[in-house]
TrEMBL record:
<dbReference type="InterPro" id="IPR013328">
    <property type="entry name" value="6PGD_dom2"/>
</dbReference>
<comment type="subunit">
    <text>Homodimer.</text>
</comment>
<dbReference type="InterPro" id="IPR008927">
    <property type="entry name" value="6-PGluconate_DH-like_C_sf"/>
</dbReference>
<comment type="similarity">
    <text>Belongs to the 6-phosphogluconate dehydrogenase family.</text>
</comment>
<dbReference type="InterPro" id="IPR006113">
    <property type="entry name" value="6PGDH_Gnd/GntZ"/>
</dbReference>
<feature type="binding site">
    <location>
        <begin position="32"/>
        <end position="34"/>
    </location>
    <ligand>
        <name>NADP(+)</name>
    </ligand>
</feature>
<dbReference type="GO" id="GO:0050661">
    <property type="term" value="F:NADP binding"/>
</dbReference>
<keyword id="KW-0521">NADP</keyword>
<feature type="domain" description="6-phosphogluconate dehydrogenase C-terminal">
    <location>
        <begin position="178"/>
        <end position="473"/>
    </location>
</feature>
<feature type="binding site">
    <location>
        <position position="102"/>
    </location>
    <ligand>
        <name>NADP(+)</name>
    </ligand>
</feature>
<dbReference type="Pfam" id="PF03446">
    <property type="entry name" value="NAD_binding_2"/>
</dbReference>
<feature type="active site" description="Proton acceptor">
    <location>
        <position position="182"/>
    </location>
</feature>
<dbReference type="InterPro" id="IPR006183">
    <property type="entry name" value="Pgluconate_DH"/>
</dbReference>
<keyword id="KW-0311">Gluconate utilization</keyword>
<comment type="pathway">
    <text>Carbohydrate degradation; pentose phosphate pathway; D-ribulose 5-phosphate from D-glucose 6-phosphate (oxidative stage): step 3/3.</text>
</comment>
<feature type="binding site" description="in other chain">
    <location>
        <position position="190"/>
    </location>
    <ligand>
        <name>substrate</name>
    </ligand>
</feature>
<dbReference type="GO" id="GO:0004616">
    <property type="term" value="F:phosphogluconate dehydrogenase (decarboxylating) activity"/>
</dbReference>
Length: 483
């Protein structure tokens, strides 16, 4: 047995991960269901390092040194299930199977429990950074046992992105923690993208800026707290001119956003855990709404009187101040969205006993992944200063930032509503913050309604643990205290 680690599945992501490992001096066994892919990898990249190709799965397994580590990089779902079963039959106690795909964390929990019975470690591992990241340094989020991380960790840390000399990889926690954190990373990615898209739309349709002007605005935001990979990506997309038509590239793309499921999983899991993640949910719903072409057409053709106001900015100064307000609204909403994502991780960590270090999650997202940004340093520092932070919103850096952006943020949300330009994630992030800061919420009225029609009971402000019910149907409407 001569290979340090194996990669099963040589699509672009798998092949790049294998090459990254080989380039870092690890001997990598490679296997793919159709052997052609393995041959192609060897023909093109064999000189990049020590590869051990196999055409039979048994040879692949036999080439791995013990305890064996096999990374699976195949399509999540049925594909992963089948490969896990094939490997299970060939591996021994102490060996480690790593699923590097975007798998739903409950599937990972189920597989982990079942393989544990056989003494095999199953590691659900989030990998972010797309194809380029897999090759040049991704952000890596492995779950599973500490024992498996002791064997795997050094290899993974060597191939991950590094920021300030620190690897963007750490042991997230046991069980499905790695895949859960990757799922929430994607949920935050959805929210961040939607917020940026809303900023673009407002600049264009309220601010009256042209696409190249908006690209220049985004480029200038690199020098602000918004500096991030997604802002870079946005700038590049907006700067592109379609060669065929000469139009702005963004104008030739069909405006129906796709999705592969991780945003919905994040939202569904939040609903299940009872955590509010409105920015992530709005971003997911916005993709769905954009893709509801029949409904969009029907409502558009109904030509409803929108009641929208014509809003214009006459002077350069007014326009600049609107651009600035949008930047502040974007920053405020971004803080709210990240606070929601971290809250979801914190809640899952408590629910499942994972003990996830939230500051470390922000640290491993600083490089390699899609949401990489300067901003994440502030999150790491916030959790280092106060590991039990109730919400990122109250960390001193963010609380101060929110206070300074809130007036502009309110202005932008109100303007968007008046102008009839949809900004669901901006608006719901603001409402989220206002809900959390309110002294009293109308939830009291909801409790009253629930008690009225379903005897669902309520607590009193002067007796918060007592259970009360009003005898609504009786004349006196007496209040009873229940046990
Ligand atoms: C990453 C990305 C990657 C991705 C998802 C989401 O971390 O490298 O999050 O996992 O972009 O595939 O894709 P959809 O937008 O298609 O859901």
């Amino acid at each position: 047995a001569s290979a340090d680690i194996g990669v099963y599945g040589l699509g672009v992501m798998g092949a790049n991960l294998a090459r990254n490992l080989a380039r870092h001096g690890h001997a990598v066994a490679v296997f793919n269901r159709s052997h052609q892919r393995t041959e192609r990898l060897m023909a093109r990249y064999a000189d990049e390092g020590a590869f051990v190709p196999a055409s039979e799965l048994a040879d692949f397994v036999a080439s791995l040194r013990r305890p064996r580590v096999a990374i699976i990089m195949v399509q999540a779902g049925a594909g992963t299930e089948a490969v896990v079963e094939q490997l299970r039959a060939l591996l021994e106690p102490g060996d480690i199977i790593v699923d590097a795909g975007n798998t739903f964390y409950k599937d990972t929990q189920r597989r982990e429990a079942s393989l544990r019975e056989q003494g095999i470690h199953f590691v659900g591992m989030g990998v972010s950074g797309g194809e380029e990241g897999a090759l040049l340094g991704p952000s890596i989020m492995p779950g599973g046992t500490q024992e498996s991380y002791d064997r795997l960790g050094p290899m993974l840390e060597s191939i991950s992105a590094h920021v300030d000399g620190t690897p963007c990889c750490t042991h997230v926690g046991p069980d499905g923690a790695g895949h859960f954190v990757k799922m929430v990373h994607n949920g935050i990615e959805y929210a961040d993208m939607q917020l940026i898209a809303e900023a673009y739309d407002l600049l264009r349709h309220v601010g009256g800026l042209s696409v190249p002007e908006i690209a220049a605005v985004f480029r200038s935001w690199k020098d602000s707290e918004l500096d991030s990979y997604l802002i870079d990506v946005t700038t590049e997309v907006l700067e592109r001119v379609d060669p065929a038509t000469g139009a702005a590239f963004v104008d030739v793309i069909v405006d129906a956003a796709g999705q592969k499921g991780t945003g919905s999983w994040t939202t569904q899991s939040a609903l299940e855990l009872g955590v509010a993640v409105p920015a992530i949910a709005e971003a997911t719903f916005a993709r769905a709404a954009s893709s509801s072409s029949a409904q969009r057409r029907a409502v558009r053709e109904a030509a409803l009187d929108s009641g929208a106001r014509e809003i214009g900015y006459d002077t350069a100064e007014e326009r600049q101040s609107f651009i600035d307000a949008v930047r502040q609204a974007l920053y405020g909403s971004k803080i709210a969205a990240y606070a929601q994502g971290f809250d979801e991780i914190a809640t899952a960590s408590t629910t499942y006993g994972w003990d996830v270090d939230l500051g470390a999650m922000a640290r491993i997202w600083r490089g390699g992944c899609i949401i990489r940004a300067r901003f994440l340093d502030d999150i790491t520092r916030a959790y280092e200063a106060e590991p039990a932070l109730a919400s990122l919103l109250v960390a001193p850096t963010f609380a101060t930032a929110l206070e300074s952006v809130l007036p502009a943020w309110r202005e932008v949300v109100a303007t968007a509503a008046l102008a009839g330009v949809p900004a669901p994630a901006f608006a719901s992030s603001l409402a989220y913050l206002d809900q959390l800061r309110a002294e009293r919420l109308p939830a009291a009225l909801i409790q009253g309604q629930r008690d009225f029609f379903g005897s669902h009971t309520y607590h009193r402000t002067d007796d918060p643990t007592g259970v009360y019910h009003v005898l609504w149907a009786e004349d006196g409407r007496a209040e009873e205290k229940w046990d």
